[in-house]
Write a structure and sequence with these properties.
Elements lengths: L7 H16 L8 H30 L3 E5 L9 H7 L3 H10 L4 H5 L11 H15 L4 E6 L7 E5 L2 E5 L12 E2 L5 E5 L2 E7 L4 E7 L2 E13 L6 E11 L13 H14 L14 H25 L6 H4 E6 L5 H13 L4 H11 E4 L10 E3 H7 L1 H21 L4 H7 L2 E2 L2 E3 H8 L2 E4 L2 H11 L1 H6 L4 E3 L6 H7 L2 H11 L21 H26 L8 E6 L8 H17 L8 E6 L7 H18 L8 E6 L4 H10 L2 E4 L11 H7 L4 E3 L5 H8 L5 E2 L4 H9 L5 H7 L1 H8 L15 H8 L12 H20 L1 H13 L6 H13 L9
Parallel strand pairs: 1-2, 1-11, 2-10, 11-12, 12-16, 16-17, 18-19, 18-21, 19-20, 21-22, 22-23
Antiparallel strand pairs: 3-4, 5-9, 6-9, 7-8, 9-10, 13-15, 14-15
Helix pairs in contact: 1-2, 1-4, 3-18, 6-32, 8-10, 10-11, 10-13, 12-13, 19-20, 20-23, 20-31, 21-22, 21-28, 27-28
Bound molecules: ligand TH1.
Ligand TH1 binds next to helix 6.
């Protein structure tokens, strides 16, 4: 047994006790939310012991620590996951059953912590799970947003955003740690002082505003190893006036301003995925959590080490995209101004401690802060960046004498902007992409100049996902079946063992069992859809699923145009054979992304027409699942037959949903983009449906001004019909304007951009043919079952455990910790 405190009677007593002391109630009287709280506190009690033990082990072993710096951690619910990782899920479920409490219902009471947008934030969460499971010392560093990712409602087919007040009922798993608060300073000016006695120039920030950063710690439980790491997210508080400089004391305006600053800084997560908006508050958020995290890391290091020069032996700051990149300058500031090191010493430490992960090549996602804004908000940090840039450009000119074009292309400060990616590459010792293809594109296209100058920094770390959440928790039927079939549950920590399923690929009994589990999961999703959408879907139809953030490059528009095409086909040829299909969508659009919202409306309009057309006998259904998030994702992946991964080749850096589908036995229908390439390599071309332009072809077209979608429109009547239906009122009650912008985006954009930038019409025929092949394959039950099973069997590479081990081996060089209990 993992812990005697999970013993049935002990645990039951604990829950009863909690209900009594927290709410003055009995189990029978308690509300489901109160039961969730009481159960969670009982679980936390046990976690705390392991958490303490882990910290003590760290003190003994003094391991190297990775600080995973991220604006986003899309954690998903904690209760079920913690129970799984403490290997107590089934025991606790049984104990609660005896008390008449349904664990699943209790789990549904937990708000889904959504401190992230999508793949990037969820990757950070999977990484924390793997770090703890593999026994490495790690901190996640982020922001405790008051409001996470908005809740999505669909009203009249349109997305409506409502605030995600995830802390309303209190978060039972967090610990507030006021005593580790750090001050963070913004604005003002820098006074330069010369100190004769030490011969040093001092840089003193004056007239600044400051906030107090208060850490909240959440436990990150490793699987079955008593290892508990920490996610440290920062809240902001005004510095009360007695803490102000004597000069400022009693300054009422200043006190109120600082109150406001503190409140607004952590108020809300920016709901943009793969997009940079350039808002001042966002930069404040970045510096706020970075300054607090770096200060805390240095304080911690200095508690037990006296030589700051050896920081790189014990500390790594991994920067999750450019959002935390101000870290390099903040570390320099602390080393220069507070530790009083010289530039070269400080630079040496910084460039051995900081590493950067690139997650996108989308131009609109690149962070380029206007210099005036940046230098006003972070005057000292800006000075340091100027000096980093000055010294870097000397090197560029040495390497490429007379080549001012190179200087312009590579500079950190250029054209009135601070280019954060360049800063990260120059100051980091490692630059990694998140899938093989993506890393090659970085090296050969986007970051070519940097790769040429410093090839040793570049490396690939293909993303991964945690099987603890996305199989054990999300798909318990399949998890148990896998354990039975391969004769071990070691796959929970070694996903390569899934290959043990390959021997069942031609075993009809095993295949039938596998598909029976898929069927049950489809029934579960069908019930969810009935309850939430009021739509009846047939679990015997093909569940064809595209769930991810809504973005033009992800091409949900291609998917829904194809649905419109199928509908036309069925209507025109009622006798045509057609295997029933349910197209399932789930996607949030950034609140300000108008075209993405139009696509959501279109999907819902098509759903309305198609689902209510009795003449097609329910052959086609379209479902838009409201508020796609981690908790319903688990249900969706388990139930999917087809995994739609149809981004314009070269645009999706990796994708991680693709891996979750694969794990759950859904073949990929996709382009050769991101990690799809590696998925196909593992599972075999014959077990996926690949179509469309290659990334090289896309890049080629882009470099030559695009292509002519008009030609396709003119020559292909089926495509023309579908495109025309955007403006002839078919899906808009006769309104010819509702989808005019989508129509224009394909043929003649009004904003000066290229027509059909994402090659939707170009790839349409290839997509339709691939979809035809899906249908053919599905009709042959055995063949489909084999494909599906092989997807599960071949997914071993895509565990985040493998990804993390690669980061450790090539970048972080962490020490393993064994927690002794
Ligand atoms: C995503 C990428 O689009 C996706 O391909 C990848 O699998 C995932 O990161 C994890 O590596 C990104 N999300 C964001 C979010 C923001 C900015 C850039 C990216 S890239 C806010």
């Amino acid at each position: 047994m993992y812990n005697p405190r999970f013993e049935k009677e002990t645990f039951k007593k604990e829950v009863k006790h909690n209900v009594k002391t927290l709410y003055r109630k009995t189990i029978e009287e308690a509300t489901p939310q109160q039961l969730f709280q009481a159960v969670s506190y009982a679980v936390k009690e046990v976690i705390i012991d392991d958490w303490i033990a882990t910290q003590n082990q760290f003190k003994k072993d003094d391991p190297k620590i990775v600080y995973y710096m991220s604006m986003e951690f899309l954690m998903g619910r904690a209760l079920g996951n913690n129970l799984i990782n403490m290997t107590a899920y089934k025991e606790v479920k049984a104990a609660l059953d005896e008390m008449g409490i349904d664990l699943n219902a209790i789990e549904d009471e937990e708000p889904d912590p959504a401190l992230g947008n999508g793949g990037l934030g969820r990757l950070a969460a999977c990484f924390l799970d793997s770090l703890a499971t593999l026994g490495y010392a790690a901190y996640g560093c982020g922001i405790r947003y008051r409001y996470g990712m908005f809740k999505q409602k669909i009203e009249n087919g349109y997305q409506v955003e409502t605030p995600d007040n995830w802390l309303k009922e209190g978060n039972p798993f967090e610990l507030r740690r006021e005593e580790y608060a750090k001050e963070v300073r913004f604005g003002g000016n820098i006074r330069v002082e010369y100190d004769d006695s030490t011969n040093r120039t001092k840089f003193v920030q004056e007239n600044y505003e400051s906030v107090l950063a208060i850490p909240y710690d959440m436990p990150i439980v490793g699987y079955g190893n008593h290892h508990v790491n920490t996610l440290r997210i920062w809240d902001a508080k005004a510095i009360t006036d007695f803490q102000l400089d004597s000069f400022d004391r009693g300054d009422y305006h200043k006190a109120v301003e600082q109150e406001n600053l503190a409140k607004t800084i952590v108020e809300v997560l920016y709901p943009n995925d793969n997009h940079y908006a350039g808002k001042e508050l966002r930069l404040k958020q970045q510096y706020f959590f970075i300054s607090a995290s770096i200060q805390a890391a240095i304080t911690k290091y200095k508690k037990t080490h006296d030589d700051i020069h050896k920081l790189p032996e014990k500390v790594i700051f991994q920067m999750n995209d450019t959002h935390p990149t101000v870290a390099v300058a903040e570390l320099m500031r602390i080393l220069l101004d507070e530790e009083e090191l010289g530039w070269n010493e400080a630079w040496d430490i910084t460039t051995k401690t900081c590493a950067y992960t690139n997650h996108t090549i989308m131009a609109e996602a690149l962070e380029k802060w206007p210099i005036d804004l940046f230098s006003r908000l972070l005057p000292r940090v800006y000075q340091i960046i100027q000096e980093i840039d000055r010294r870097f450009l000397i090197q560029v000119r040495e390497r490429y004498p007379g080549n001012e074009e190179k200087v312009r292309k590579m500079a950190i400060l250029y054209n009135g902007q601070v280019r954060m990616a360049h800063l990260a590459i120059v100051a980091g010792f490692s630059v990694n992409g998140v899938a093989r293809l993506h890393t090659e594109i970085l090296k050969n296209q986007e970051l070519r100049d940097f790769y040429e100058m410093m090839p040793q920094k570049f490396n690939n770390k293909t993303n991964g996902i945690t099987q603890r959440r996305f199989l054990m928790h999300g798909n318990p039927l399949l998890a148990d079946w896998v354990t039975e079939k391969i004769g071990t549950k070691d796959w929970i920590t070694d996903l390569s063992l899934m290959s043990g399923l390959k021997k069942y690929a031609d075993d009809s009994k095993a295949l039938a069992e596998f598909m029976d589990i898929k069927y049950k999961n489809k029934v579960r999703l069908a019930e969810y859809i009935r309850k939430h959408n009021g739509i009846e879907v047939d679990p015997r139809s093909i569940f064809d699923v595209q769930v991810k953030r809504l973005h033009e490059y992800k091409r949900q528009l291609l998917n829904i145009l194809h649905v419109m095409y199928l509908y036309n086909q069925i209507k025109e040829h009622p006798e045509m054979s057609f295997f029933p299909r349910t197209f399932i969508f789930g996607a949030k659009a950034s609140a300000g992304y108008i075209r993405a919202k139009e696509i959501i409306k279109l999907i819902n309009s098509v759903a309305d027409i198609v689902n209510n057309d009795r003449s097609i006998n329910g052959k086609l259904k379209v479902v838009f699942i409201e508020d796609y998030r981690v908790s319903n994702a688990e249900i969706i992946f388990a139930a999917a037959d087809v995994s739609e991964q149809i981004s314009t080749a070269s645009k999706e850096a990796s994708g991680t949903g693709n891996m979750k589908f694969m794990l759950n036995g859904a073949p990929t229908l996709g382009t050769m983009d991101g990690a799809n390439v590696e998925i196909v390599e593992e599972v075999g071309m014959e077990n996926a449906f690949i179509f469309g332009l290659s990334s090289e072809e896309v890049i080629n077209y882009e470099n030559n001004g695009g292509y002519h979608p008009q030609d396709i429109y003119n020559s292909d009547p089926d495509i023309r019909k579908v495109v025309d239906q955007l403006i002839n009122g078919t899906y808009s009650n006769g309104d010819h304007e509702m989808y005019r912008d989508l129509y224009n985006s394909l043929l003649c954009p009004k904003d000066g951009s290229k027509a059909d930038m994402y090659f939707i019409l170009k790839d349409f025929r290839a997509y339709a043919e691939a979809q035809k092949k899906v249908e053919e394959a599905y009709k042959d039950k055995e063949r489909w079952a084999k494909m599906a099973l092989l997807n599960t069997a071949c997914c071993g590479k895509f565990t985040s455990d493998r990804t993390i081990q690669e980061y450790v081996d090539d970048i972080w060089h962490l020490d393993k910790v064994t927690v002794e209990i």
